[in-house]
Design goal:
It is a single chain. This protein is mostly beta strands and 367 residues long. It has three domains: 130 residues, no CATH class; 107 residues, no CATH class; 99 residues, Beta Barrel (Thrombin, subunit H). 7% of the residues lie in helices and 31% in strands. The protein is built from five helices and 21 strands. Strands 4, 5, 6, 7, 8, 9, 10 and 11 form an eight-stranded antiparallel β-sheet that branches. Strands 12-14-19-18-15-21 form a six-stranded antiparallel β-barrel. Strands 1-2-3 form a three-stranded antiparallel β-sheet, with no helix packed on it. Strand 8 and strand 9 form a beta hairpin. The chain is flat, with a radius of gyration of 25 Å. The two termini are 34 Å apart. It comes from Duganella guangzhouensis. Pfam families: LysM. This is LysM peptidoglycan-binding domain-containing protein. Keywords: Signal.
């Protein structure tokens, strides 16, 4: 299991504990399940989301019921296999403890109460992550969402070493365009347009990730050439003349702390990764809202099937003999965990789900 870096206090505190903000009508209620156990022994493979699901009606509410301070909730190295999570019913909190020794004579879990603390041996190596990391790791830096303006200004490969059709690792690529001081780039090829299910406007393009390039020699002013020389670092797919470049994004934060959006969100599922028509638990979808709409990493949204419009044969017909058309309520089907955001689009991981998710389904602020 990979090491998980810490989340900034802004996400872990301000965004988490202001569910009852000026933009929200009511605070988010984090209620415990009526069948919640007294305790849970942490095992390898657990996630905080899954563990919390055994105690809470809304698993993503776990940060609000630990009773931690700002530094503790931001520290990813606070829960490990072998520790005990127990339900303090009187305080309405989850607590962290350690196994009770057989000869200690202590039977009260409260006597084993511990505060979260950082380990000095193998820090983070076995720490329990927030969500399943293996599912989303391939999506943290690619595939890519690019908008039309970005495609117009992105540097592009204009020639290849020895006029080769396709480039492989170690080959040279000749590039034109403004590098903005960057030296490491992803190579992409724009794919099909991603449309907003409501407006039908193009909100981005899902681009194929082809590999990475490293700057070898930047074009020198006054040399008579504005062409940069690159070397292929990795080749995931065939790349060549005409393919475009995008600076490699910074290493993403991977200790995702769930929180409701800072402002009301009413989004729609715009696409399902892999080209399928329906998605289930732990599959990736894109929605038609992004950074410009206030979404950030860790935002949790509720998923709904849009209520169908049906004829009410029990109501009085119109003057023209037509039956009244009524819209059925939207039906909640699951939750969506946002783990990567672009300007107008975000990638989300489907968590609990009771029915397949499809394009056009609603994703909105938790109630």
């Amino acid at each position: 299991m990979k090491n998980f870096s810490t989340v900034g206090p802004r996400l872990a505190w301000a965004a988490l504990f202001v569910a009852a903000s000026a933009t929200a009508a009511e605070p988010i209620k984090c209620e415990f399940r009526p069948d919640a156990p007294d305790q849970h022994v942490v095992v390898k493979g657990d996630t905080l989301w899954d563990i919390s699901g055994t105690f809470l009606q809304k698993p993503w509410c776990w940060p609000t019921v630990w009773g931690m301070n700002r530094d503790e909730i931001a520290n990813p190295h606070w829960i490990y296999p072998g520790q005990i999570i127990w339900f303090d019913r009187n305080a309405g909190r989850l607590r962290l403890g350690t196994p009770i020794a057989a000869n200690s004579g202590a039977n009260d879990p409260a006597s084993q109460r511990l505060g979260p603390r950082v380990r000095s041996d193998g820090v983070g190596a076995d720490a329990v992550p927030s969500i399943p990391p293996g599912v989303i790791e391939p999506f943290l830096t690619q595939p890519l969402i690019v908008d039309e303006d970005e495609m117009k200004t992105a540097p592009r490969i204009i020639a290849t070493q020895e006029s080769r059709v396709f480039l492989g690792q170690g080959d040279k690529a000749y590039v034109r365009g403004d590098l903005h001081g960057n030296t490491a780039f992803q190579v992409f090829r724009p794919g099909q347009p991603l449309k907003d299910p409501v407006t039908q406007k193009v909100i981005g393009y899902e681009a194929a990730f082809l590999g990475t390039l490293k700057l070898q020699a930047e074009a020198k002013p006054g040399s008579g050439s504005d062409v940069h020389t690159f070397t292929v670092s990795t080749a995931a797919q065939e790349m060549g003349k005409g393919d475009q470049l995008r600076a490699v994004p910074p290493t993403p934060m991977q200790n995702y702390v769930p929180h409701p959006p800072a402002q009301p969100v009413d989004a729609r599922v715009a696409g399902i990764y892999g080209g399928v028509t329906h998605a289930g638990q732990h599959q990736i979808v894109s929605i038609n809202r992004g950074k410009l709409d206030g979404l950030d990493v860790g935002t949790v949204l509720q998923l709904y099937h849009t209520g169908q419009t049906v004829s009410d044969s029990t109501a009085k017909k119109s003057w023209f003999g037509r039956e009244q058309q009524v819209k059925l309520p939207d039906e909640e089907v699951g939750s969506l965990f946002i783990f990567r955001t672009f300007k107008q689009v975000s990638y989300g991981l489907i968590m609990q789900v009771t029915a397949p998710v499809q394009i056009g389904d609603v994703a909105k602020s938790p109630e």
